[in-house]
Amino acid sequence: IREEALNKIASCKDMNELQSLRVLYLGKKGPIQEVMKSMKDLPKEERPAFGQQVNEVKSQLAQVIEDRKAVLEVEEMNKKIESEKIDITLDGQKPTLGNIHPLMLVQQEMEDLFIGLGYEIGEGPEVEQDLYNFERANIPKDHPARDMQDTFYINAEELMRTHTTAVQMRELEAGAKEQKLPIKVICPGKVYRRDDDDATHSHQFMQCEGLVVDKNITLSDLKGTLLFLAKKMFGENRTIRFRPSYFQFTEPSVEVDVSCHVCGGKGCPVCKGTGWIEILGAGMVHPNVLRMAGYDPDELSGFAFGIGIERVAMLKYGITDIRDFYTNDIRFLKTFNRFE
Ligand code: PHE
């Protein structure tokens, strides 16, 4: 029995097997117990020696099992370490980085330009009061000019702002409180209009408006500023032209074209053969607007302009459907990745 047990213990391969051997040889039903039971058949004087011998075998086996257990434990630990080893020489998986949305790229570019000119950045709520979106912009209730901007109304006093001019009216009011001069601010942000979405219309889009108020601000200041903007956004060779237009909050009002950045002004499909691309609306701040905000239009003047961020992004990047900005197709967005 001893030889057999020693062999089995020595060759056993894991803890489970070892445990069953322990139960087998040292437990109550094992062969050693059997032998012990047979002791009663022996002559009395032989029993002590026999018992001693059996006990020796028992304790020897117990010891050998303990030793084997120690060895197996080390082996199992080593196996575990081996299997959990990380091969640091393998190539890793590069985490995918997100990238900045094309509209944000344009917005940030404009912000950088105007911060460089000493402007501040103004922000206002997207759910706006009728007061700032319309009244203060010289668009009273029931005035037909309200139809130019189909509005999402929340209730009688609140609406989704239809232009960032609303933010300018807030900036103007805040400035007038302390008669601050000059005011130089740009207001980028989302605006909303009740339009049916198609390739060139979106019920939500982005604008960036600029406002300057000081003594002796003239139309030529506006022109110089917009020429600078056009050159920085569309290339140093660009020129601009003013066409008369109409906005309630500016007088005179102009629409501004930039010479086509694709054909350089010769005429191509992008500028529909005209050599010019309309990019923004602008004008001299209407005296009523200054007065309502709390400034004296006899003392000072200002200019304002408003540019559509989608429009600039579409021209700059050659995008033909405004909806591409908002459907968030990752393949489209990835083409603006500057980090790879
Ligand atoms: N608010 C006008 C628009 O949404 C743009 C504009 C801003 C025109 C400032 C003139 C001056 O179309």
Automatic annotation (TrEMBL):
<dbReference type="InterPro" id="IPR006195">
    <property type="entry name" value="aa-tRNA-synth_II"/>
</dbReference>
<dbReference type="InterPro" id="IPR004529">
    <property type="entry name" value="Phe-tRNA-synth_IIc_asu"/>
</dbReference>
<keyword id="KW-0436">Ligase</keyword>
<dbReference type="InterPro" id="IPR002319">
    <property type="entry name" value="Phenylalanyl-tRNA_Synthase"/>
</dbReference>
<dbReference type="Pfam" id="PF01409">
    <property type="entry name" value="tRNA-synt_2d"/>
</dbReference>
<feature type="binding site">
    <location>
        <position position="251"/>
    </location>
    <ligand>
        <name>Mg(2+)</name>
    </ligand>
</feature>
<dbReference type="InterPro" id="IPR045864">
    <property type="entry name" value="aa-tRNA-synth_II/BPL/LPL"/>
</dbReference>
<comment type="similarity">
    <text>Belongs to the class-II aminoacyl-tRNA synthetase family. Phe-tRNA synthetase alpha subunit type 1 subfamily.</text>
</comment>
<dbReference type="InterPro" id="IPR004188">
    <property type="entry name" value="Phe-tRNA_ligase_II_N"/>
</dbReference>
<dbReference type="GO" id="GO:0004826">
    <property type="term" value="F:phenylalanine-tRNA ligase activity"/>
</dbReference>
<keyword id="KW-0460">Magnesium</keyword>
<keyword id="KW-0479">Metal-binding</keyword>
<comment type="subunit">
    <text>Tetramer of two alpha and two beta subunits.</text>
</comment>
<keyword id="KW-0648">Protein biosynthesis</keyword>
<keyword id="KW-0547">Nucleotide-binding</keyword>
<keyword id="KW-0030">Aminoacyl-tRNA synthetase</keyword>
<dbReference type="InterPro" id="IPR010978">
    <property type="entry name" value="tRNA-bd_arm"/>
</dbReference>
<protein>
    <recommendedName>
        <fullName>Phenylalanine--tRNA ligase alpha subunit</fullName>
        <ecNumber>6.1.1.20</ecNumber>
    </recommendedName>
</protein>
<keyword id="KW-0067">ATP-binding</keyword>
<keyword id="KW-0963">Cytoplasm</keyword>
<dbReference type="InterPro" id="IPR022911">
    <property type="entry name" value="Phe_tRNA_ligase_alpha1_bac"/>
</dbReference>
<dbReference type="Pfam" id="PF02912">
    <property type="entry name" value="Phe_tRNA-synt_N"/>
</dbReference>
<feature type="domain" description="Aminoacyl-transfer RNA synthetases class-II family profile">
    <location>
        <begin position="106"/>
        <end position="315"/>
    </location>
</feature>
